[in-house]
Specification:
This protein is α/β, with parallel strands linked by helices. It has three domains: 172 residues, FAD/NAD(P)-binding domain (3-Layer(bba) Sandwich), CATH 3.50.50.60; 123 residues, FAD/NAD(P)-binding domain, CATH 3.50.50.60; 68 residues, Enolase-like, domain 1. The chain has ten helices and 26 strands. The structure holds flavin-adenine dinucleotide. The site of flavin-adenine dinucleotide (FAD) has 33 residues, from α1, α2 and α9.
Length: 383
């Protein structure tokens, strides 16, 4: 049995591991030139805190021993799902089954074009190495987007000695994950680290100069930077699937077995849309990669597959003395927030209660009790 996997990220590598363990002959096509890596660790690589060898998912010898044929620098140009064919610059070859694991691509706003080489995302190894070349003590970094990736980049950049400013469109940080008090505590903690945060600020334009970019804010102010990182989210990379006429909305549509409507063609990771939702999660991509491989093999062997049940994964982030955790809902009409013992202006332990049941918990600056409250929230969600 020969299986072709398109994309060598967390979903693709896990699918390859499982398929090869089940005895399949596996080819993984990667559009990138380097061994598959832990994408979340790109931040540490970009700001000079680790080298590439520290972020590889597996060493080259692992693929060789597992008899996984990893084809680096081999972007798939087209697929024929019905014939299970994959076309690359070297030609077209047939498989018994395909797994699409092409991941996501960063969302870039219009002003990024005018900012030229000074404005970029941090999404792949090329971006990380480019950023790394530009790290200078005292140089100015603007991060557009105050979500978790923007915050993480800001903390690493401060550690690398840069002057850092986060520009966030919303009036407070991470409003989906944190209530107003927790958002405020988060803001204070970032400011204590020397990170400037501009809230409620959109960018209306960028002017590229010889050695910097000037970002024009919608309120008429402007901000100069030697580097601007855009961190406003990602969307599924569904181009290949769409051109093969596989059904796509925001992402590639799969059923509860991670199967596309074409038999023998499965998908996993950030590229998929499942039950109307697209996700961006290393843990879920890995779980989906495993299940897509098991279910593809089951379908070829004529046995029944397993259903995918998405997990409620908490936001859990710690970098030295900076830590934030969140799961479930924030306060809203009919949903109250209670501060737990030990809360202060910069340390928050908040429980969100709906009809007497915990439906959310948020912590800033501590993790005390988070896991047990999170378990209650997960239980309440299942009932
Ligand atoms: C800086 C950063 C920090 C993050 N931090 C976290 C975190 O803390 N926790 C968390 O859960 N998630 C985090 N994420 C998100 C997480 O990395 C993704 O959810 C995860 O990588 C998705 O895995 P995937 O296998 O679906 O796709 P990806 O890891 O994106 O891999 C897809 C691969 O497919 C390749 N590809 C695409 N098209 C083709 C083609 N036509 N031919 C061949 N190859 C192709 C791409 O080049 C890519 O290498 C972070 C992401 C970034 C960028």
């Amino acid at each position: 049995m020969r299986i072709g996997i398109i994309g060598a990220g967390h979903a693709g590598v896990e699918a390859a591991r499982v398929a090869s363990e089940k005895g399949a002959s596996v080819v993984v096509f990667s559009g990138e030139q380097v061994l598959p890596y832990y994408r979340p660790r790109l931040v540490a690589l970009a700001f000079g805190q680790v080298d590439f060898s520290a972020i590889q998912i597996k060493p080259l010898s692992w693929y060789e021993q597992a008899k996984i044929e990893l084809r680096l620098n081999t972007p798939v140009l087209a697929i024929d799902p019905l014939k299970k064919q994959v076309s690359t610059a070297s030609g077209t070859e047939p498989f018994d089954g395909l797994i699409m694991a092409s991941g996501g691509v960063p969302v870039m706003p219009d002003f990024s074009r005018d900012g030229g080489e000074f404005v970029m995302p941090l999404w792949n190894i090329t971006h990380a190495l480019e950023i790394r070349k530009r790290i200078r003590k005292g140089s100015r970094l603007v991060i557009v987007g105050g979500g978790i990736l923007g915050i993480e980049a800001a903390l690493h950049a401060i550690e690398a000695g840069m002057e850092v400013c986060i520009i966030e469109l919303m009036n407070r940080l991470m409003p989906i994950q944190f209530g107003s008090r927790a958002s405020c505590a988060l803001l204070r903690r970032l400011e204590e680290k020397g990170i400037r945060v501009l809230l409620g600020s959109g960018i209306s334009g960028a002017i590229r100069k010889a050695d910097k970019v000037t970002l024009e804010l919608a309120n008429g102010e402007s901000c100069d930077a030697e580097l601007c990182l855009v961190s406003i989210g990602a969307r599924p990379d569904k181009a290949l699937a769409a051109s093969a006429k596989l059904p796509c909305e925001r992402g590639m549509i799969v059923d509860e077995f991670l199967k596309t409507p074409v038999p023998g063609c499965y998908a996993a990771g950030d590229v998929i849309q499942f039950e109307g939702i697209t996700r961006c999660s290393m843990k879920e991509s890995t779980a989906q990669g495993k299940l897509a491989a098991l279910n593809l093999i089951s379908s070829i062997e004529g046995t029944t597959g397993q259903r995918y049940v998405p997990e409620t994964i908490p936001l859990s982030f710690r970098s030295k003395d900076f830590e934030i955790y969140s799961i479930g809902e924030t306060a809203s009409p009919g949903v109250e927030e209670h501060l737990l013992d030990g809360s202060t202006e910069t340390l928050i332990r908040a429980l969100v209660i709906k009809e007497g049941v915990p439906v959310g918990v948020q912590m800033v600056g501590t993790r005390e009790g988070f896991d047990s409250y999170a378990a209650e929230v997960k239980k309440a969600r299942k009932n």
